[in-house]
Amino acid sequence: MTATVHDVAILSDFRYPGGNSAAIAAEVRAQAEAGLRTILVHVPSPHNRDGLPFSPRIAELLRDGLAELATPDAAVNARLLVIRQPRIFTADLAVVPRVHAEHTVMVLNQAPGDSADPTRYYDFAQVRDRVELYFGPSVEWTPISPQIRGMLPGLSAEDWHEIIDVADWPSRAPKNGDLPVIGRHGRADAVKWPRAADELLQAYPDKPDLRVRILGGGEIATRLLGRRPANWEIIPFGGEQPADFLRTIDFFVYFHDPDLVEAFGRTILEAMAAGVPVIIGEHFRPIFGDAALYTTPAGVEPLVRALWADQERYRAVAAQAREFVETRYGVASHLARLAARGAGARPAAHRAPALVRRDPAPRPRPVLMLSDNGAGLGHLSRLMAIGRRLPESCPAVIATQSYGASVAHREGFLTEYLPSRAVLGLPKQRWAGFLQSRLEHLVDLHRPAVVAVDSVPHDGIVAAAAARPDVTWVWVRRPMWRRETGAEWIAKRGAFDGVLEPGEFAAPADEGPTVADRAGVHPVDPIMLLDRSDLVGPDEARAVLGIEEGRPAALLQLGAGNINDIASPVGRIARHLREAGFQVLLAESMIATDPMPTVPGARVVKVYPISRYLRGVDLVVAASGYNSFHELLAFQVPTVFVPNRATSLDDQVARARFAASTGAALCVEDPESDELDRVLAEAVRPEVRAQLARRCAEVGFGNGAEAAARWLAGLAAENGRSGA
């Protein structure tokens, strides 16, 4: 079979939230319109922290079929390879992507440093050495702007400048109100703001007859000022789409730290395309010519007032800017440079219709699955358990407030990240509005037939469900809540069209409020990510976990450490097990906010899902959270449960007690007491572990994930037949 040759391969880290992803998205869309096949090659940058999901702009490209994502270690063939973001190459790559291209361009879209430190971000010589080692000596090195050209030697004579499709940025209507509105948008970075408080207030005045709107990074400015001016409105990054935001402002004003070398200025380009007059510093003139207005922070207010009073000139400035970006930075300029490098547009007869942006062909309507933040991965794992069993006719889209968004992405799900209230630091009411807005946007974007919510019904979720009644909303509600908790959440279940309830082995001991709330509840067996058939054999499991032959092994799985302090009992448990001859492994959650404590003689393992390797261990000491509890019993693993008492809803104590009362597990309710030593002394005995495994087999239960997926798929089909 002949390998697919793509027209353009783009290699970058697709998790960058700002201009890098916006620029890639613009180029991919232009390529798709020209009938060009694009493949994206993801290479993590050492400067991006683990756990970040793909930028929503990139996720949207993949969802719409405008580009393909190269699978890890796959060979990629392309007419042209475009590499963006030099910081990826500030360290040796763990895995070098296998890309063969007829021509390779390295786009230097960031300055190597600033005036204070010329190599703050990367050493150009080191980056060049690595790129040419990986991709050959014939790489074409192109700057994104004259600013970068002036800082580095030996670059191409042509800039690989940003592009924009003006048609995607409808021109705003003249005047948003009686008062002029000054605005800016961008990611949160201190260097993107003036360093001095007086210059900040000159650029964004605190005046009652002016309004200021800031999308992203406003918290940096208010920290510098020590207050938020009364005329300022601050929207979190991602709280509004840039095109929508730009329609609400009259002037785009952008000034930054004097040491920063701004490589291009994507947000400036977007404002011009939207017909918003731009006020910026003189150093941007080589990029934006006479289409922008240049001044200092002190000159902003007089310029705004003069232009506001002369609407004819205002309209002329806006029109000139829009015409300028279309002529110099429009789609045609990008297609021309592709053609010059052997990747020209294909004739219409050979275009791939699946890659055309406005393809009217219907797509399967997915199930949008929303998970709460959570201390661990329980909410998210339950949804992934269902999602991986949904039919192709209604694929899963994961939306999560959890740091585990990257886990879902690695598991192959199209994943959207919604920052939690704690991450954004918002008061309850503002976060409710943010959550509602983001959910409504995701519903409009993905057009799901069903939204499945594994979360308590926060106000923002309830409001979004009311605002999008044509979608079937389902609450995936785990039982076993603590007594006298959660009544306020039960009262809001009317916001949902149905309740899907994962089963609970300890249901006879359940005294929580869900027990009495049964109307409209669809029960299934306990939901688990894996089936028994998914577990690897003992030898493979021990090899993956690094377990030595000849000695028993114990796994400590006490949670993410994000609710309670798991460090205090770990040392005692590990010491007892080591003295009994066990190898000790400490399971570290993929989203733990603090590293596991250092325990002599114990080794940390960080694997997801660790349940796949449970046949390699002889004993587990675990918290009794819903997911791990049911996995350990279903997979017949001898277990000592140490319930977490610090949970807000989950009754881990009652769950662990019930398992112990049935003889399926042991339980330590107070790990600070002598009970811990007594129970562990029993657990290390081979005959006790064998009896626990036999009892688990006797009381065994099935996996309800398949039944849950069938039920949701049925609801999706009913929604489709109703014409929603």
UniProtKB/TrEMBL annotation:
Domain of life of the source: Bacteria
Keyword Transmembrane: no
Keywords carried by this UniProt record: Transferase
Domain Glycosyl transferase family 28 C-terminal: 610-690
One protein family per Pfam: Glycos_transf_1
Location of the Glycosyl transferase family domain: 175-282
Gene3D superfamilies documented for this protein: Glycogen Phosphorylase B
GO function terms (MF aspect): hexosyltransferase activity
PANTHER family to which the protein is assigned, alphabetical: GLYCOSYLTRANSFERASE (PTHR21015:SF22), UDP-N-ACETYLGLUCOSAMINE--N-ACETYLMURAMYL-(PENTAPEPTIDE) PYROPHOSPHORYL-UNDECAPRENOL N-ACETYLGLUCOSAMINE TRANSFERASE 1 (PTHR21015)
Protein's name according to its UniProt entry: Glycosyltransferase involved in cell wall biosynthesis
Native species: Actinoplanes octamycinicus
